[in-house]
Design a protein that fits this description.
Length: about 425
Amino acid sequence: MNNETRNNYILHNASQLLTLAGGPQRGSRLGELGILENSAVAVRDGVIIAVGEFGDLQRDFPSFSHLDAEGHVVMPGFVDPHTHLVWAGDRAGEFDLRLQGKSYMEILNAGGGIISTVRATREASLEDLINQTRRRAQLAFTSGTTTMEVKTGYGLTFESELKQLQAIIELNEEGPLELLPTFMGAHAVPPEYKGRTDAYVSLVCDEMIPALYKWWQNQHPQRALPFVDVFCEKGVFDLEQSRRILRTAKKFGFPLKIHVDEFESLGGAQLAAELGAVSADHLVKTLPEDIKVLSKSNTVAVSLPGTPFGLNEDEYTPAKALIEKDAILALATDINPGTSWCESMQFILALACRKLNLTPAQTIAAGTINAAAALGQQHRIGSIEIGKQADLLILDVNDYRHLGYRFGINLVSTVIKQGIVYPIK
Ligand code: NIG
Ligand code: FE
């Protein structure tokens, strides 16, 4: 990817500088963009070191070069806190079947769905897996995503889960998109354990999680542990099985995430709050009592509107109710080959405006600072504040509301990752 190496510069001439300053936005605070007009950002060695009037920054940093935003919107890079980016193959045939009336769960229970991607991913070499995934990572980056969470879960044996993890780690090292890994050995019950879910749960708890912990300590002792996630859903892992897996992970110190209420409500949102999960994700069929408990906790509610859209279903996350009860709401793509093959957070924002009834400002906060909180990274990314990583976007519009309003095209003209400038157009 082409870039302009610049170490120290002042980004100036933004029509609107969306700072998103002030930390994660709970409840009715959602949508505080912290807009500054006539303001500039000084970047040194990949870090934001000053925000203020261009004249003042020029005086304070006379040796810095200047990067002209040409009267356009400048904002933090998008954070995508829920993805299944690493897989092999595609499921175009299944999409066709679904349009002919088969349901997602019917296809999964007949050995298709996630399981067909598991077969393809197990067969792929690490190199092939990385090559297939790189293209999607590039599309996400050029669409404005600067940090992304990525799950395993298409291997379902320790070795093949590790292969996915290695793909995530290698692609992160390649950059420029930053990837944070999640172990999701409990994404589905593999074919060899069909009808023996409890035995598979034991394998995950007694062997995979301890082995992962050991591997991580050996290979990446300096890095934070990955997240551990479970698909808590009827016909996949029930509430007790999910609790068992997450409790085991918690004992080892892994931070937790959980897929809940995508198709049916099992009470997983309350489990997330009970275990102090960093996030509870999907939240479509969530009941009022679960909304209440989740909203009182620090667990971020991650909505994935690309999924019901991708499945052509009518029900979406009750985002208004979550906001009213004071939850921290975030947005993500859920990019995966089955339900939501969408690299673009911009499209997710457009969907959230229409299907979750959010304003553009609310979707921007949900896709930046709150999305960073869904990864426990709010201290480092997700806003334009002194000391934060310089992950920034220049849009080719002068009014932020074009995000959400417009869809199906790319409004990002420049992506800045850790201070390095990548012109997109
Ligand atoms: O988030 N819910 C489980 N996982 C994905 C779907 C994965 C797939 O179909 O391959 C989701 O929707
Ligand atoms: Fe998912």
